[in-house]
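User: Could you walk me through two proteins back to back? I'd like the raw sequence and the structure tokens for each, with a short line separating them so I can tell where one ends and the next begins.

Assistant: Of course. Protein one, sequence then structure:
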Amino acid sequence: MRPYCQRAFFNYGENLVLQCKRYSYPVGNSAVQEVLAGKSFYKTDVAAVVSKKTFTLSAKGIRPSGVFLLHHEMLPELEGMIEK
């Protein structure tokens, strides 16, 4: 079964999957697990969970390298974060 993630490409060749959450409560570790499944399925370099809310400590705790947890207002900064 295909994970429900959005796939995007940057100009310099990086590709990524995005998991967008429009929750009214903090985003938990299931969103991180979902985006990791998308990263593996699509064989991307980077993955990000984007939300208008904060992330739980458990979500932050299981986040591996190459996975970003972003407030939606930080989305325009993502490309710069990946280049570092």
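----
Protein two, same layout:
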Amino acid sequence: MNLRSTFARYLLAGATNTVASYLLYLALLQVSGYRVAYVASFVAGIALSYVLMRFAVFQSPGRRFSSLWVAASHLMQLALGLAVVELWVMWLQGPTELAALAAVAVCVPLMFLVQRWIFMSSGRGGRSREDEGSGRSQSSGSGR
């Protein structure tokens, strides 16, 4: 699988997920408070992210417990993003209006690598899509 096309699909999936999550947030604001709307849309965004990464971006079931890995990676992204925002505003004294963009600039490439790790190896001793595309094969367990 070509890294450039995979990354392009990753960016498109991320944009789709962002728009869908935001629209859900706006819809939920009509029937609930902003905290409930935010949490519900965030959780729905994690679920949509899993589906998009598994079927549209990496086209692989991924590692064992991949859905839990995806959820954990989003929590990691939240923590890293908050750290970048804090660093940007408090230490670098950058404009607060650009803090979220700084977080995106740091998080998107790192999250791509994390998601790629989650989905590009089955973690079950089988061949990943990446291995199939490059002609490499893994041992089937015999002889090693």
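Helices lie at 3-29, 34-57, 66-91, 99-119, 129-134.

Let me know if you want the two compared in more detail.
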